[in-house]
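Kindly review this record before class:
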Amino acid sequence: MHAQKLVLATFCLTAAASTAAAQSPAAPASAERPRPRVALSLSGGGARGVAHIGALRALEEAGIPVDAIAANSMGSVVGGIYATGRPASELERIV
Protein backbone atom coordinates (compact mmCIF):
# COMPACT_ATOMS: atom_id res chain seq x y z
CA MET A 1 0.00 0.00 0.00
CA HIS A 2 2.86 2.38 0.85
CA ALA A 3 4.37 1.84 -2.61
CA GLN A 4 1.06 2.76 -4.28
CA LYS A 5 0.91 6.02 -2.33
CA LEU A 6 4.49 6.83 -3.27
CA VAL A 7 3.80 6.19 -6.95
CA LEU A 8 0.67 8.37 -6.86
CA ALA A 9 2.47 11.21 -5.07
CA THR A 10 5.34 11.00 -7.56
CA PHE A 11 2.84 11.15 -10.41
CA CYS A 12 1.28 14.31 -8.95
CA LEU A 13 4.63 16.05 -8.59
CA THR A 14 5.78 14.97 -12.05
CA ALA A 15 2.57 16.27 -13.63
CA ALA A 16 3.04 19.61 -11.84
CA ALA A 17 6.66 19.86 -12.99
CA SER A 18 5.67 19.04 -16.59
CA THR A 19 3.07 21.81 -16.54
CA ALA A 20 5.61 24.30 -15.21
CA ALA A 21 8.17 23.32 -17.88
CA ALA A 22 5.62 23.82 -20.65
CA GLN A 23 5.03 27.45 -19.70
CA SER A 24 6.66 30.14 -21.84
CA PRO A 25 9.80 31.47 -20.09
CA ALA A 26 9.33 35.09 -21.13
CA ALA A 27 6.41 37.19 -22.34
CA PRO A 28 6.63 40.35 -24.42
CA ALA A 29 6.60 43.60 -22.42
CA SER A 30 3.31 44.62 -24.02
CA ALA A 31 1.52 41.43 -22.94
CA GLU A 32 -0.83 41.36 -19.97
CA ARG A 33 0.63 40.35 -16.67
CA PRO A 34 0.29 36.56 -16.26
CA ARG A 35 -2.00 35.23 -13.57
CA PRO A 36 -0.45 33.97 -10.35
CA ARG A 37 0.22 30.23 -10.24
CA VAL A 38 -1.83 28.25 -7.71
CA ALA A 39 -0.34 25.28 -5.86
CA LEU A 40 -2.29 23.15 -3.38
CA SER A 41 -0.94 21.20 -0.44
CA LEU A 42 -3.32 18.40 0.54
CA SER A 43 -2.82 16.60 3.86
CA GLY A 44 -3.39 13.02 4.86
CA GLY A 45 -6.10 11.40 6.93
CA GLY A 46 -9.31 9.87 5.63
CA ALA A 47 -11.72 12.60 6.76
CA ARG A 48 -9.41 15.45 5.76
CA GLY A 49 -8.78 13.82 2.39
CA VAL A 50 -12.49 13.74 1.70
CA ALA A 51 -12.82 17.36 2.93
CA HIS A 52 -10.30 18.42 0.27
CA ILE A 53 -12.94 17.62 -2.33
CA GLY A 54 -15.08 20.47 -0.98
CA ALA A 55 -12.11 22.84 -1.23
CA LEU A 56 -11.48 21.76 -4.82
CA ARG A 57 -15.16 22.28 -5.64
CA ALA A 58 -15.01 25.82 -4.20
CA LEU A 59 -11.94 26.61 -6.32
CA GLU A 60 -13.72 25.31 -9.43
CA GLU A 61 -16.83 27.38 -8.69
CA ALA A 62 -14.66 30.49 -8.20
CA GLY A 63 -12.92 29.83 -11.51
CA ILE A 64 -9.49 29.44 -9.89
CA PRO A 65 -7.37 26.92 -11.81
CA VAL A 66 -4.93 24.67 -9.92
CA ASP A 67 -1.44 24.51 -11.44
CA ALA A 68 0.28 22.13 -9.01
CA ILE A 69 -0.66 19.72 -6.24
CA ALA A 70 1.54 18.32 -3.46
CA ALA A 71 -0.03 15.82 -1.10
CA ASN A 72 0.37 12.80 1.13
CA SER A 73 -1.77 9.83 2.16
CA MET A 74 -5.47 10.33 1.40
CA GLY A 75 -4.73 13.82 0.08
CA SER A 76 -2.51 12.27 -2.58
CA VAL A 77 -5.32 9.94 -3.65
CA VAL A 78 -7.69 12.91 -4.03
CA GLY A 79 -4.99 15.11 -5.60
CA GLY A 80 -3.86 12.39 -7.99
CA ILE A 81 -7.37 11.78 -9.27
CA TYR A 82 -8.00 15.53 -9.57
CA ALA A 83 -4.72 15.94 -11.48
CA THR A 84 -6.05 13.60 -14.17
CA GLY A 85 -8.61 16.28 -15.04
CA ARG A 86 -11.66 14.89 -13.32
CA PRO A 87 -13.96 17.51 -11.73
CA ALA A 88 -14.66 17.66 -7.98
CA SER A 89 -18.18 16.32 -8.54
CA GLU A 90 -16.72 13.11 -9.97
CA LEU A 91 -14.20 12.92 -7.11
CA GLU A 92 -17.08 12.76 -4.64
CA ARG A 93 -18.52 9.77 -6.45
CA ILE A 94 -15.13 7.99 -6.69
CA VAL A 95 -13.97 8.57 -3.12
Q: What stands out?
A: The longest strand covers residues 39-42.
